[in-house]
Amino acid sequence: MRCPTCRSVADFILKRPPQDDRAARRMYEGAGLGSKDVNIFNPYDSYAPMAQLFLEGFQCHGVRVGDAFAFYAGDIRFGGTHPFCSSRGGLGTGHCRTAVYTDSIEQLRGTAGARKVKVRARSALAASTTPSSGGWIMFGKSPS
User: Fold this and answer.
1) What is the dihedral of CA 74, 99, 112, 61, to 10 degrees?
2) Which pairing describes strands 40-42 and 123-127: parallel, antiparallel, or unpaired?
3) Does the model's pTM come out above 0.85?
4) Residue 87: is its pLDDT beyond 80?
5) Fold of 17-140
6) Residue 41 is inside which H or E element, if any?
7) Burial class of residue 61, CB neighbours in 10 A (0-12, 13-18, 19+)
8) How far is CA 100 from the centre of its chain?
9) Domain ranges (residues) in the chain
10) What confidence tens digit (pLDDT) does each residue in 118-130 have?
């Protein structure tokens, strides 16, 4: 008998899950924002392919389905024009789920130190779990 978790991860990696699109719609509708409004994107990435799936599903930085690898070839550093995963993600922080939230808040406050992004940070989208688990939060500098 195969492990159900392994099977679901394999299915997730091999087929883009519809919950990405559904979660993106819910997040943007609930926040009254769109993908072009997100300056900081800290997706859940505890399995390497997930960051790509979420980047495309949430269409952050204008990335559409199939465009992630071209996006990675651009300037995604902290100081770059399209900073990506400035928290260093789950893979870079030893699976510390709250790092994505803490980094998003620090980026908006301008207190991220060496990780501080150079783009104007007015909103941040972060996740500590997969979209279907509901761990996504939109942060903003102003309540309106």
Assistant:
1) 30
2) parallel
3) no
4) no
5) Peroxisomal Thiolase; Chain A, domain 1 (3.40.47)
6) strand 40-42
7) buried
8) 8
9) 17-140
10) 888 899 988 877 7
